[in-house]
Amino acid sequence: QVQLVESGGGLVQAGGSLTLSCAASGRTFSGYVMGWFRQPPGKERAFVASINWSGGGTYYGDSVKGRSTISRDNAKNTVFLQMTSLKVEDTAVYYCATGPVGGTYAYWGQGTQVTVSS
């Protein structure tokens, strides 16, 4: 049973930084991709960033490009999302998800709230 547990959310002032973590368990993730998504209040969930567990290739959504870095610790099966220069509009529930490369995100975490105050 694949489990994803996010942590690191909280309240931060605009301009600040925050690092989210996603601890994954339940299988070997070689050949999988880990993604971060976010859902602001009243809006649809949107892609934030992704990283290939094996090769480390990364992709970023336009909303966070240049302000965020996704990384992984394969030994700990943990993926990180470092966010800097946070804006009020970054306020959202952040989810991590995983699935096979080229497939769909089949497994999702429970989400962690990030609130950016002005």
Task: Please report the distance between the alpha carbons of the first and last residues.
Answer: 40 Å
Low-confidence stretches: none
Order of helices and strands: EEEEEEEEEEE
Tell how many strands the DSSP assignment holds.
11
Helices and strands: which structural class?
Answer: mainly beta
The major sheet is characterized as: 7 strands, mixed
Chain-averaged pLDDT: 95
Total count of helical runs of at least 4 residues: 0
Work out the strand percent: over 45%
> Helix content range of the residues, please?
under 10%
Inertia-based shape = globular
Rg over C-alpha atoms, rounded to the nearest angstrom: 13 Å
Question: What oligomeric state do these chains adopt?
Answer: single chain
Describe this structure in words.
- The structure is a single chain.
- This protein has about 120 residues and is an all-beta fold.
- About 0% of the residues lie in helices and about 55% in strands.
- It has no helices and eleven strands.
- Strands 2, 4, 5, 6, 9, 10 and 11 form a seven-stranded mixed β-sheet that branches.
- β5 and β6 (about 60) form a beta hairpin.
- The protein starts with a strand and ends with a strand.
- About 30% of the residues are buried.
Task: Draw up the topology in text.
Blueprint: E1 3-7, E2 10-13, E3 18-25, E4 32-39, E5 46-52, E6 58-60, E7 68-73, E8 78-83, E9 92-100, E10 107-108, E11 112-117
Parallel strand pairs: 2-11
Antiparallel strand pairs: 1-3, 3-8, 4-5, 4-9, 5-6, 7-8, 9-10, 9-11
